[in-house]
Amino acid sequence: MARSKMTSREKSEFIWGWAFILPTMAGLIILNIFPIFSTIYQSFFKTGDFGKGNIFVGFNNYAKVFADTEVWQALWNTIKYAIVEVPISIAISLVLAVFLNGKIKGKGTFRTIFFLPMVAAPAAIAMVWRWLYNSEFGLLNHILPGKTNWISNPNIAIYSIAVIGIWSIIGYNMVLFLAGLQEVPKDFYEAASIDGASGVQQFFNITVPLISPTIFFVLVTRVIAAMQVFDVIYMVIDNNNPALKKTQSLVCLFYKYSFTQSNKGYGSTVVVVLLMVILLLTVLQMIGQKKWVHYN
Predict the structure, then answer these.
(1) pLDDT (0 to 100) of residue 193
(2) For residues 177 and 93, is the Cβ–Cβ distance under 8 A?
(3) Phi, psi of 237 (to 5 degrees)
């Protein structure tokens, strides 16, 4: 026979449970879910004067976006940034995590050093890297031969920005990989060493397969974050930079249309297109992970 009443302990756990999760749920709804639906709704309108009197235009904004060469260029810029930043940052972070997971002196200090870029202010990071990339008195041009316009040459500017992204995220990825490495049994490495496996063989045949779920998580989250890149581009590339069109991302276009030109309807459409692209990439990753991610 089922009980019809809860005990006082069960009531207390029920109340306190909801008390703890309600702030998170409220924040998720107010700061994430509601803005998503509001943006999609706004994409079907043309912004009225002074933010009022929006005019319903249906799919006109979407037709305009797909015919806009600037949007396609921004999408290609974003993809190029992600192609460079994501795999290189993951590879470097994984190697560093394996190195710092071993028995070395001062590994706590090294972990802190590598994680420092994550706690640095984006504005400070942009200022330092603009100095490093400066074509007249920058440190890179002082060390390397020749004079390179790192952030004003349209052909290489997006890759220079990707280097900043790689440098900024290595520490975060490394911490995640270190957490995954703690779950790998040491017995596997000892058995492999007895069988004569080298460190490289152990890395590819033991480490990578066993932490593949962590690698997959980092891959998905980094692709999503890279496709939303904005702050580093906005602070490093100014409006007079000749490489602007070859570096601005879709989020930069959203900012330009929504807040600079006050065309929030069209800006919202750009973001919805970006959302569709991210969803497509995530679905493809979810399908592909069945072939290389091992959960057992």
Answers:
(1) 87
(2) yes
(3) -100, 115
Average of pLDDT values for 17-36? 91
**Straight-line distance from the first to the last Cα atom of the chain, in angstroms, rounded to the nearest whole number:** 40
Q: What are the φ and ψ backbone dihedral angles of 31, each rounded to 5 degrees?
A: -95, -15
Residue 51: predicted pLDDT: 59
3-state DSSP: the chain helix, strand, coil percent, rounded to 5? Answer: 70, 0, 25
pLDDT range class, residue 49, cuts 50, 70, 90 = low
**Alpha-carbon torsion, ordered 250, 254, 256, 258, to 10 deg:** 170
Average pLDDT of every residue of the chain: 89
Position 50 scores a pLDDT of: 58
CATH of 60-291, one of 3.30.450.40, 1.10.3720.10, 1.10.3470.10, 3.40.50.150: 1.10.3720.10
Q: Which pair of tokens denotes residue 189?
A: 């490495």
Q: Where are the domains of the chain?
A: 60-291
102: left (phi over 0), alpha (psi -120 to 50) or beta: beta
